[in-house]
Specification:
The chain has 491 residues and is mainly alpha-helical. The chain has a single domain, classed as Sodium/glucose cotransporter. The chain is built from 19 helices and 2 strands. It is globular.
Length: 491
Amino acid sequence: MEFGTLNTTILIVYLLAMLGVGFFFSKRQRTSEDFYLAGRSLPWWPVAMSMYASVTSASTYLVLPSKAYAENISMIVASLISPLVAPLLIFVFYPVYRRMRVTTSYEYIGQRFGPVARQAVAAMFVLARIGWLGTVLYAPSLALSVTTGWSLTACILALGIVSTAYTVMGGLSAVVWTDVIQFVILVVGAFWVLTKLLITVPGGAPAIWQTAAEAGRLSVFDLRLGEGGGLFSGIFLHMSIWSVALHMSLSMCHEYGTDQITVQRLMAVRDDRGVTKVILFNAATDFILIAVLLSIGLGLLAFYKTVGGGLPELASADGILPYYIRHNLPAGVAGLVVTAILAAAMSSVDSGLNSIATVIGVDLVRPWRRSRGSDGGEITFARWMTVALGIIATGVAFIMADIKDILDGFTQVTSMFSAPVLALFILGMLWKRTSFVAWLGSLAVVPPVMSWINTATGVNWSWRFPMSFALSVLVTVILTQVHSILLQKKG
């Protein structure tokens, strides 16, 4: 099936609109604080939408339906975890950041452990998010290629260039206000697809639920203790509600509590009450939209088993939603839903580029300068850095094209780089004796071990972040104790 002129026009108009927003805000970037934090003067509601759109990448938009379609709905627990994590963010993390008036979350690490620690953790963030950027660029490009028939190369280049361009022009202001548009599009698109499936599948929601139950998609409590072999038992080889709950609890603490993409937005809010509203808004939206996306996956399963002519043969289940869009949605609607996927992607890409540029400028470059440069010079540096990062992210997206599972690639990156960073933040806040030297020593153990687990053991994606976090904490605590004993002997 051809994608069609109408659908193509909708996509082009959307991309041009994003560039227009970037150009509009380019005239308002007078200081480095304007570029990095939008002058710390944003209302809470656009920040709330921006934060959700940034964290909910196209990977999420494609992965949640694909996991429900091909495996089960264990990820429904994420909608419950988000409200539970909210009090930790409101009462533990952000009072510290707001009191310190930080530009990046890693300034806290600098005050807690010293400047070397700040730069080491900032570098870990940069490595993790560059890998993540490649994933969130590749995922929607794959969807766009499947639905339009355009080459994957052209799709990656188009998304990378447009996202980089408006981020370079407008800084955080452009990122936030384009994210507002993208948030609306991605929510409307998700509800549109779900409604279409409920109408199309004979019997509606009850029939979809019955098909899911018969296919085992509702079996989420099975630990499969008797399966598997070698070092890891069957419990670690499959996704269950328990593994997803553990994974999401830790990854949400990282994404919302320590990661610069989120921290940067909440530091741009005018007051503390606004911060609380943003966090609660995201928890409520998570509760609804995760359920919607998983329901789409179950609806797709029922559709292809009843009226769709049988389950399609796809290289990866991640392609099921784009396949449905191309073959079953009418002209105009297909363009809008593909635009929703692109909106989810670009809201993450622009946020990643702006946040990484901020961390490089504030945490990695500024401390080495003998005197702080002019605001104009800092903005120029930030813009050129954003251009460079956009080029690198686009290159990483081509590398990510070799992965068969989007979530698999994403969790490989976060388990090696993000989980150790979360371990340092939490140990630093909860245990006074935490030694940065000990944590640094843990980096000699954790990334190599996780690299082996990721590639050689068959451990399910949902166990990777918890394993890495637990290993980071364990090794850091042991090395802290050893370091303490050695210091006592020297004394």
